[in-house]
Amino acid sequence: MNQITLLIVDDHPLFRQGVVDALSLEPDMRVVAQSASGDEALEMIRTMKPTVAVLDVNLPGMNGQQITHQVTQDRLPTRILLMTGYDDIEQAIHAALAGAYGYCSKDIQPQSLSRIIREVAEGKYVFSENVFNRRELEQWVEEQIEGARRSYSEPGSPFHPLSEREMEVLACVVRGMSNKEIASLLGISHQTVKNHVTAILRKFGVEDRTQAVVYALKRGWVTLKDTDIRHQE
Q1: CATH 1.10.10.10 domain locations along the chain
Q2: Gyration radius of the chain's alpha carbons
Q3: Does domain 154-231 have CATH number 1.10.8.420?
Q4: For residue 57, which of 26, 39, 64, 158 is within the disulfide window of CB 3.0 to 4.6 Å?
Q5: Cα-based torsion angle of the residue sequence 203, 86, 60, 54 in order, rounded to the nearest 10 degrees
Q6: 65-69, 161-165, 185-189, 211-215: which has the minimum mean pLDDT?
Q7: Which tops the pLDDT comparison, 134 or 145?
Q8: Strands 52-56 and 29-35
Q9: Which residues belong to CATH 3.40.50.2300 in the chain?
């Protein structure tokens, strides 16, 4: 039997230990490490490469969404399952676009968590209690965004507060490109790209690149076909 190796990350010791204890009872699973910090968790993922990392969305230092995005960017083999105490559909969309394989609420039953981990370890995606292949996940995300976008739809061309160059940078961010790749493509300096990204986040009132993508998608300023969700290995 191939064991599923696990990293458990949560900054609440009692909850984290409860998850570790519950999963340690599963014969096909082995908890190889646990952590309370996002930065330490990313380092553990890079060095230990567990099959699945179960991450709290809200962590000190790097949060779960940021870790997920970095793992995806770096094409690390570990699959991310995000857990949250504040389950909502927008956070689930963030998780999918960042590259998570699953997203669930912390009030889940232990046997359900074990089942989801097994699905994720097999390369499936689990969101809103649904098990998807990648194409089905894309369709689900598109439907969720389309539903949210209706509340922003107005006649005429949609208003957006970005300059033409900022829109070009945003289009690259949506495709999952790094600042270095954007600088090379647009023929501008790395620092100029950083300045544009900072301006985009400020104008949107969001904290990170994934949230900026969701914000723009929901308002129809960019389209899902531009995102890198289709190109994850």
Answers
A1: 154-231
A2: 18
A3: no
A4: 64
A5: -120
A6: 161-165
A7: 134
A8: unpaired
A9: 4-132
Pick the closest to residue 200 from 223, 218, 216, 220 (CA basis).
Answer: 216
Taking the mean position of all CA atoms in its chain, how far away is CA 53?
Answer: 12
Residues whose CB falls within 8 Å of the CB of residue 179, separated by 6 or more in sequence, listed in order: 190, 193, 194, 197
- In whole numbers, what is the pLDDT of the chain averaged over residues? 87
Q: Work out the pLDDT band at 155, boundaries 50, 70, 90.
A: very low
Class in CATH terms, 4-132: alpha beta
**How much is the average pLDDT of 20-25?**
96
Q: Cα–Cα distance between 3 and 200 in angstroms, integer?
A: 43
**Res 30: pLDDT:** 97
pTM for the model stands at 0.71
What was the pLDDT predicted at 85?
85
Torsion, Cα 108 134 138 140, to 10 degrees, reads -40
C-alpha closest to that of 148 among 88, 197, 225, 208: 88
